Amino acid sequence: MKFDLFELAGQVAVVTGCNTGLGQAMAVALAEAGADIVGINKSAPVDTCRAVEALGRRFLDLRADLADIAVIPRLIAEAQTLTGHVDILVNNAGIIRREDALHFRVSDWDEVMAVNLKAAFFLAQALARLCIEQGRGGKIINVASMLSFQGGIRVPSYTASKSGVMGLTKALANEWAAHGINVNAIAPGYMATNNTAALQADEARNAAITARIPAGRWGKPADMAGPVVFLASQSSNYVNGYTLAVDGGWLAR
Ligand code: NAD
Question: Could you say which of 48, 100, 165, 202 has the lowest number of CB atoms within 10 Å?
Answer without folding.
Answer: 100
